[in-house]
Amino acid sequence: MTRAAVFGTGNWGTAFGMVLADAGTDVTLVGRRPELADAINARHENPDYLPGVALPEGMRATTDPAEALRDADFAVLVIPSQTLRANLAEWAPLADSRTVWVSLMKGVELGTCMRMSEVIAECTGAEAKRIAVVSGPNLAREIAARKPAAAVVASEDIAVAEELQKACHTQYFRPYTNTDVVGCELGGAIKNVIGLAAGMADGMGLGDNAKGTLITRGLAEATRLGVAVGADPYTFSGLAGLGDLVATCGSSLSRNHMFGVHLGRGLTVDQATAEVRQTTEGVKSCRSVLALAERHDVDMPIARAVVGVVHEGHAPKEMLAALMARSAKSEGLY
Ligand SMILES: NC(=O)c1ccc[n+]([C@@H]2O[C@H](COP(=O)([O-])OP(=O)(O)OC[C@H]3O[C@@H](n4cnc5c(N)ncnc54)[C@H](O)[C@@H]3O)[C@@H](O)[C@H]2O)c1
Ligand SMILES: O=P(O)(O)OC[C@H](O)CO
Q1: H, E, C per residue of 19-74
Q2: What does the alpha-carbon distance between residue 54 and residue 69 come to, in Å, rounded to a whole number?
Q3: Ligand 1 atom 21, closest CA
Q4: What integer pLDDT is reported at residue 111 of this predicted model?
């Protein structure tokens, strides 16, 4: 039987653990708080993140990473992107040399501008064939309700992607394989930044034309950066690109979207943080995404506007005016 250790007992760690278990994989969730692990084991429910969702009986939780990693085929990482490096310093030495590390995270590391698979490679020493990512339009609460969704499972080694695909394929969760790890990760991280912008537009009541424009030009920004760092441009028209942009920019279940809505309605960043509470990757990753773009001389005006609002104290209205006042250009990618 395939075994997976899932690090993170939040929304997506718990929901993806459920997907793996429903697909017949043996799953152990790894959390930090014993009382939450006990509740998951005793009640088959995660009362803090997914109250009312009945988890598969065989899915267990522990606070002991070594126990979870014993004989694990997959170590699935579902924690905030900015803490990954520190976490792996503890977890990596406990893993078997054959374990495949899987990132479900949608962020870019501050300071280094590294994608999560790059952080994993550096911290674990794992070669590319022992690293995979999962991305796509995957709002955890919908998946926890077993509503249908699709995703991309990417690894440079197609055989590894296919193994992971098998381990998480259920009647409601349809994973497609891809070998473009770079494109899938950037698609996931950048959609959060565009989701913040779309939320601001919604919060300001700007309407659906504005949102359609942000999604489309956001996709152009993501594709431009992706191409500059070696991704396949077609990945961005797929589930990890357009699919996730549409889901995130349109859903009140998206934390990034709702964070933007709060800002658009006039709340401060601190007030929006207090409202949303859970991991909102775009808030930090907008800066690392923009830094990566600057490093590659790629223009990302929407991402720059988001950084202006979230980190530089500009009002959403000011940034909107700046975006609209840019010089006229043709529609192409550049
Ligand atoms: N929620 C979704 O719908 C969804 C879908 C796809 C991808 N993601 C991505 O998955 C990642 C996690 O998101 P989430 O929604 O599960 O977040 P969450 O806020 O629901 O849960 C975060 C989890 O990480 C743990 N955590 C926080 N700080 C930690 C630290 N310093 N060390 C170890 N663990 C820590 C928390 O205890 C919690 O278990 C993010 O990168 C997000 O973009 C989320
Ligand atoms: O709630 P968000 O904004 O982190 O989005 C969740 C998922 O990434 C949607 O695919």
Answers
A1: HHHHCCCEEEEECCCHHHHHHHHHHCCECCCECCCCCCCCCEEECCHHHHHCCCCE
A2: 24
A3: 10
A4: 98
Alpha helices (runs of H) in 104-242, residue ranges in sequence order: 116-124, 140-144, 158-167, 181-203, 208-228
Residue 157 and residue 97: Cα distance in Å, rounded? 16
From the CB of 139, is ligand 1 less than 6 Å away? Answer: yes
Atom index in ligand 1 nearest the CA of residue 116 equals 41
Rg (CA), the chain: 19
Contact yes or no for 100/30 (Cβ under 8 A): no
The reported pLDDT for the residue numbered 298 is 98
- Burial class (CB within 10 angstroms; exposed 0-12, middle 13-18, buried 19+) of 121: middle
Give nearest CA residue, ligand 1 atom 4. 12
Residue 333 has a pLDDT of 85
All structural domains of the chain, each given as residue ranges with its CATH number in brackets, are 3-179 (3.40.50.720), 189-324 (1.10.1040.10)
Does 78 sit in the ligand 1 pocket, CB within 6 Å?
yes
Nearest ligand to the C-alpha atom of residue 257: 2
Residue in 256, 261, 278 to alter for ligand 2 test, most ligand atoms within 8 A of Cβ: 256
The pTM (predicted TM-score) of the whole model is 0.98
Q: What's the pLDDT score for residue 334?
A: 83
Which residues are designated catalytic? 191
Strand order in the sheet with 26-30: 60-62, 26-30, 3-7, 74-77, 100-103, 131-135, 149-154, 173-178
DSSP-assigned letter for residue 109: -
Compute the distance from residue 256 Cα to the ligand 2 centre, in Å. Answer: 7
Instruction: Tell me how far CA of residue 327 lies from CA of 146, 171, 200, 301, 324, in angstroms.
Output: 46, 49, 22, 12, 8
User: Which residues of the chain, if any, have pLDDT below 50?
Assistant: none
Predicted complex ipTM exceeds 0.95: yes
Identify the DSSP state of 287.
H
